[in-house]
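User: Okay, second chain of the day. Same drill as before: sequence in, C-alpha cells out.
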Amino acid sequence: MADKITVAGVAVDTRHWIGGQRVASAETFTDSSPIDGQPIGEIARGGPAEARAAVAAAKAAFAGWAATARAERARLLHAIADGVEKRIEELAIVETTDNGALLRSHRRGVMPRVAHNFRFFADWLLTLEHEDFETRGHANHVSWDPAGPCVLITPWNAPLMLATWKVAPALAAGNTVVLKPAEWSPLTASLLADIAAEAGLPAGVLNVVQGYGAEIGDALTSDPDVRRISFTGSVPTAERIAVSAAANLTPLSLELGGKSPLLVFADADLDLAVDLAVEQYDNAGQVCLAATRFLVEESVAEEFTRRFVEKATALKQGDPRDEATDIGPNIHPRQLEKIDGFVRRAIAAGARAVIGGHREDGQYYAPTLLTEVAQDSEIVQEEVFGPVLTLQTFADEEEAVRLANDTRFGLAATLATGDRERAERVTARLVAGTVWVNCFFVRDLQAPFGGSRLSGVGREGGTWSFDFYCDLKNTVTAPGGWKDHG
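Assistant: Same drill. C-alpha cells below.
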C-alpha cells in the first residue's frame, strides 16, 4: 500500500496518525469517490491493535496537555485554524472528491467554518468561568478539570466540520483525542492531523485512526482509559456504543438521526416557506437536521406544492465540482440502495411521487417529493438520509403540533408563520433540540446543540461542550483559619 495518494493534486497520507507518527496497518480498505464511483485509494484499516495504540498515546500525552496553560492551548488552536485557512482550497477539493458535497459550499462555507470551530472554542476557553458564591460564609468555586482521553467518532456527510466541532472543544478543555472518521470519507481527517502537527500540537494530543465500524469502534469505546465518547451517526450504532461504554460508565454525547418537520401555516410568507422547503435538498438530503416532513395548512397546500415543484425542478443535479450544480451524488452505492428502497416501498404502499421517485445514473437520486403518505408509514417515521421529502396537510394548529411530534425523533423543527404569538405557542410545544422560525440552519457555536428522544443524548456547544468534556469540580473553602507563613 502506498503511504500517500494524490487527490485532485493534493497529497494525502493513507496511514493512521498515532503518537505523532504515521502508522501503517497490515490490511486496507478501498475509498471511492461518489462522483464517479471510481476508487480514490487504499486506506490503512485499523483494528483493536491500532485502537489500543491510539488510546495509549492519548493517555501518555494527557498529563502534559492538561497541565498546559489555557492561553497556550488557545494559541495552538488558533494556529491550527491558521493552517486550515491556508489550505481551504485543498481541503475543499479533497472532501468534495471524497464525499460528493458541493465544492462551492466547501470553499465558501464549510472549510471556513472548520477554522471558526477552532477559533471559537479557543476564545471561549479564555473566558470560561463560573461565578463564585457563598454558602453560610463558605466560598464555593467551580472549575472545569480536563477529563482524560476522548474518543470522537464522526459521520461521512460533513466529515471535517463535524469532526472539528468535537475535536476543538475537547482539545480546548485540556483533553487528548482519538478521532475515528467515517470509513466512507476519511481523507480530510488525515489532512487535519498534518495541519495540527505543523501548528505544533504535541505528539499524542490528537490521534487519527481509520477502519470499518465495529472492528475498531468496539475496541475504542470499551477501552477503560477512555473518559469521554462523542458520536454522531445512526441510532443502531449509538446503541452498540452505549453498551460498549457501559462497562466503564464512560460518559456519552450522542447526536443521532432526525425526522424533522417543516410546519407551514397559511399566514406564512409563502415564497419564504418554499425557499426553506427547497433548501432541504442541501447535500443531496444527507443532513441530519433536514426538515424532511412538510406539514402544510390545507388552505395553502395546493399553492405551496405548485411553487415548490416549480422551484425544485429547476435545481441542477450533477458533478459537485461544477459551480452551477445544486445537488450532487449520494455517498455510497449502499446508501443509494437504501434511499431507493424507502421510496419504492412508499409508492407500493400508496404514496405518489409529485417529483422524482427514481434513481439517476451513477450514485445520483432524483430530488423527490412524496404525497398521500400515512402518518404511521415507514417513509414518514424513519430517516431516509437522501433527497426524499414528504408532504402532509393539517387543518389547525393542534393537528400541526400533533403531527410534528408524532415520531420517535426530536432533533430539529422549522416553522413558517407570520404570526408571532403562534410562533411562540407552537415552538413551546414542539419536541426538538433546535427550532428555527422563518429561517433554517442558522447555528451559533455558543448555543446548545443536540436532540431529544432517539435523536440523541446530551448537548454540546459553548459552555455545554466544556461541561461534557470536563469533570466539573466545586471547591468549598471554610472562612478564616489560615496560618501566617510570613
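The two ends are 67 Å apart (CA to CA).

User: Thanks, on to the next one.
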